[in-house]
Specification:
By secondary structure, the protein is mainly alpha-helical. The protein is built from 15 helices and two strands. The protein has a single domain, classed as Farnesyl Diphosphate Synthase (Orthogonal Bundle). The protein has a two-stranded antiparallel ribbon. The chain is globular and about 50 Å long.
């Protein structure tokens, strides 16, 4: 069995286990029938690729971290991602009608319910980190991971990036300004997924930790440029959201500002830099390399 086939099988199993873990977490917290519970469930179990939580496991594998400790971390990261999508889709933000091939949460329910569902998913993510019994044996590491994740969510992360994205609508920013927005809006959570396991790692020296951070930043930036390309070159039925929505909202994107060919060249450049950064970290990086390929060579 080749490593790529083995990795695909391994991560498929982990993705399935993650879904079961989130199901249990939601079942412990939610009622069965109220609308908020239904909206939260709808927003999480909608065919997501679970790439960010898989990055948690692949990073932890590289660093030799026990998978039992990674499960709640992966779960928290995925809930944060799902919350961010619910809010990004709102009329006041990106005003999207489709998410993963289904009506967005505010259209399936209503706008107020969508806002509250996103708020509740974010809160649940941090409750999982704070209350997991396995992580309770590592209080300093847990606190460090909570700090990494909160920073990824806030003004220096997703929220700040979304604010910049809205501000740049109808503008033609330079490459540095555009990529800074991408690093915050999209890259911050990808970086958090890769870096949170470092808090649980033993004997990770600062140069290796810095190299892992550079890997995550390069992959996060390349991922968003891929997303921009899919918005103009993908198919709605495949990518699960309306093609051309960026252009319709006059969004600042890589292809719109610099061309599709230049976007593909930038993705390849970032991917090469990411792999080079990963080579500076001891351990088996097969999982991260496989996921990098999945992240940057996808049709949805």
């Amino acid at each position: 069995m080749t490593r790529s086939v083995a990795a695909a099988s391994e991560f498929a199993q982990r993705s399935s286990a993650l879904v079961e873990h989130i199901e249990r977490c939601l079942a412990d917290q939610l009622g069965d029938q109220d609308q908020l519970s239904q909206a939260m469930h709808y927003s999480v179990f909608n065919g997501g690729k679970r790439l960010r939580p898989l990055l948690v496991h692949a990073s932890g594998e590289l660093l030799g971290v026990d998978a039992e400790l990674l499960d709640p971390v992966a779960c928290a990261v995925e809930l944060i991602h799902c919350y961010s999508l619910v809010h990004d889709d709102l009329p006041a933000m990106d005003d999207d009608a489709l998410r993963r091939g289904r009506p967005t949460t505010h259209l399936q329910f209503d706008e107020a319910t969508a806002i509250l569902a996103g708020d509740a998913l974010q809160a649940l993510a941090f409750e999982i980190l704070a209350s997991d019994q396995a992580l309770a044996r590592h209080p300093a590491a847990t606190l460090a991971m909570i700090k990494i994740l909160t920073q990824a969510c806030g003004a220096r992360g997703m929220a700040g990036g979304q604010a910049l994205d809205l501000h740049l609508e109808g503008c033609r920013p330079g490459r540095d300004a555009l990529e800074n927005m991408f690093r915050l809006k999209t890259g911050a959570l990808i970086r958090a997924a890769v870096m949170m396991p470092t808090a649980l790692a033993r004997n990770l020296d600062p140069p290796a930790q810095a190299a892992l951070g550079r890997f995550a930043e390069q992959v996060g930036l390349a991922f968003q440029i891929c997303d921009d390309l899919l918005d103009i070159e993908g198919e709605t039925a495949v990518i699960g959201k309306t093609v051309g929505s960026d252009e319709a909202h006059d969004k600042a994107t890589w292809p719109a500002l610099f061309g599709a060919d230049a976007a593909r060249e930038r993705i390849a450049e970032l991917a090469s830099e990411a792999v080079a950064s990963l080579e500076r970290v001891d351990g088996s990086a097969d999982g991260l390399l496989w996921l990098t390929d999945r992240l940057l060579n996808r049709d949805r």
